[in-house]
Design goal:
The protein is of the alpha+beta class. Helices cover 55% and strands 12% of the residues. The protein is built from seven helices and three strands, in the order αααβααββαα. It has a three-stranded antiparallel sheet, sandwiched between helices. Helix 2 packs across helix 3 and helix 2 packs across helix 5. The relative contact order is 0.14.
């Protein structure tokens, strides 16, 4: 299961009333490793001046890798995180998470990161089975 949803949050969803804050809190509680990675890369983005930050450290276990995959493969979860932090996320190779200032989306660095060429250049033998 991707998220651990409380009965109250599920009832809100059934009524159609889910705030971003409640959804993001559910993500934070359900996927703590993914939350930590995204929080770190977003903090790095804000502390730098290049409009870009990334996290390239492979998760320590398959459990953490699964959290990261679930968080970034879900449009709803990724979108909630992007709205919460006010930046664009990009993802490569089962663990490389990048954050871009929204003004950088469409720019050269962003396009290079999300391109097929960028994916191929970021491959290595140890990542083939991730």
């Amino acid at each position: 299961m991707s998220l651990t949803v409380s009965p109250d949050l599920l009832a809100s969803a059934e009524r159609g009333e889910v705030s971003d804050a409640d959804f993001v809190a559910c993500v934070r509680e359900s996927l703590p490793y993914a939350w930590d990675v995204v929080s770190t890369v977003m903090a790095d983005l804000r502390s730098g001046d290049g409009g870009f930050a990334d996290h390239e450290v492979p998760p320590p276990t398959e459990t953490e890798r699964g959290q990261l995959l679930r968080a970034l493969a879900s449009d709803a979860i990724r979108g909630g995180l992007e709205r919460h932090f006010g930046a664009k996320l990009a993802f490569q190779n089962c663990h490389r998470v990048a954050a871009f200032d929204v003004n950088q989306v469409g720019g050269e660095r962003y396009q290079a990161f999300v391109s097929p060429r960028g994916q191929l250049l970021n491959q290595s033998p140890e990542l083939r089975n991730c």
